[in-house]
Amino acid sequence: MIVGASAAGISAALALRRLDYRGTITVVDGDPHPPYERPPLSKALLDDTTGGLVPIVPWSTYADLEIDLRLGERVTAIDPGALKVHLGGGEQLDVDRLVLATGVTARHLALPHADADNVLTLRDATDAARLSAQLARGGPLVIIGAGFIGLELAAVARQRGIDVTVVEAQPRPLANIVGPEVASLVVDLHRGHGVRLITGATVERFAATGSTVEQVVLSTGHRLDTATVVVGIGVQPRTELGTSARVDVDHWGFPVNEFGQTSRAWIFAAGDVASQAHPHLATRGRLEHWDTAQRHGAAVGSTVAGEPVRYKEAPYAWSDQYDATLQIIGRPRGTDQVVIREGATPQRFLAFWLRDGRLAAAAGMDASREIGIARRLVASTVLVDNAVLADAATDLRALLKPHRPRSPEQLAG
Ligand SMILES: Cc1cc2nc3c(=O)[nH]c(=O)nc-3n(C[C@H](O)[C@H](O)[C@H](O)COP(=O)(O)OP(=O)(O)OC[C@H]3O[C@@H](n4cnc5c(N)ncnc54)[C@H](O)[C@@H]3O)c2cc1C
């Protein structure tokens, strides 16, 4: 039984079948839509030509692989004593292995009018349809929170000529993820496209007429006229089922071991909702990326199928910003040595983070090829030099080649 039919849950189901697991696989999700990719929701939001949701796998795959999808049904409780899962409609299903891939929900502002008709969050297909309809009316758009989703929405809206203001509590957007140097390049990119970015500011109140917010009043004294407000201030893990299942829950989600097991050995957690002590994280935490959730789900599925996989791959995330893609491999830390490659511009740059002489993380804008190589370098134990990385003439591929000491014969000529 898998709760959550998204990146992690579907990958777990596919991995089970790939490894010839013969038992029944049931995937339950409260979302009624056939399983779809979330990343396109914030990227093609205003694009009428996309024609709907992008399926994770073709619809026929589930029938072909005998994966029983129960969509539009919520799991309300787990009875670990009776080995039963309770659905919202009253049905009870037997379970002997459970994967919780319940993901996260968007955080809301605890302010009067935060539930107004034009104050929205973006997490699923229903949110995206609402936001799309709202934005079709035009701007101004005020985005609270300059995380990946907030900045992607800003880019999409600016490309459609909508007036956009982004409000961020921190001095620089994304600085906690990519550090101040790369964050400054991202800021320049958005300002260059006409986004008004107000940092070090929080929302003091919403001024509303009826059920519509008309102004956002900031701690800095700014009063921003608005037609639509998008709140992108982070997420909360969906750990409600932890109480009935009697599994541990922490600040980040369901704490799991390297195999994805929760505090109850037959209950696993995968994807965004898993609180992981991952080798690329300085402390226990969540990895909230599509690729990472898929890989973690696949690793957990493999473990459930009887082929245990320790999940320790470097996290990978991407974010489309205007016509370029920002990609990040690994998790930079404040104590790493940062190297920005010569010739960086907001439209195209490469940044590296060195830890103990090795490449720990890299970020690139419009640099897919280099990030692909950096991914291999991060996975390797190759020692790298900061001056070599900074040099725009260095071919990163050459760094992957192991440096073999030459034999006395070779040295002799
Ligand atoms: C708009 C948007 C854009 C994104 N863009 C990118 C991007 O460009 N790059 C990137 O790397 N990442 C991106 N992400 C992040 C990425 O989508 C997530 O990391 C990924 O979806 C996590 O997958 P998951 O399976 O762990 O959880 P989720 O995708 O959150 O899915 C959890 C599922 O569990 C279901 N569920 C929860 N509780 C229950 C219950 N009790 N009963 C039944 N069902 C339940 C939910 O309905 C949901 O469908 C984006 C996310 C969003 C929202």
Task: Write a brief structural summary.
27% of the residues lie in helices and 26% in strands. It is α/β, with parallel strands linked by helices and 413 residues long. This is Pyridine nucleotide-disulfide oxidoreductase.
Number of domains: 3
- Helix tally equals 12
Overall CATH architecture of the largest domain: 3-Layer(bba) Sandwich
Radius of gyration: 23 Å
Fraction of helical residues: 25-40%
Task: Give the overall shape.
Answer: globular
CATH class of the largest domain: Alpha Beta
Going across the major beta sheet, what is the strand order? 3-2-1-7-19
> Would you count the extended β strands for me?
25
Q: Decide which structural class fits the backbone.
A: alpha/beta
Q: Tell me the CATH topology of the largest domain.
A: FAD/NAD(P)-binding domain
Main β-sheet: number of strands, strand sense, barrel status? 5 strands, parallel
The CATH superfamily of the largest domain turns out to be FAD/NAD(P)-binding domain
The residue ranges in which pLDDT falls below 50 over 5 or more consecutive positions are: none
Distance between the termini: 65 Å
Strand content: 25-35%
| Ligand species | flavin-adenine dinucleotide
Average of per-residue pLDDT values:
94
Keywords: FAD, Flavoprotein, Oxidoreductase
InterPro entries: FAD-oxidoreductase/Apoptosis, FAD/NAD-bd_sf, FAD/NAD-binding_dom, FAD/NAD-linked_Rdtase_dimer_sf, Reductase_C
Cofactor: FAD
Organism: Lentzea cavernae
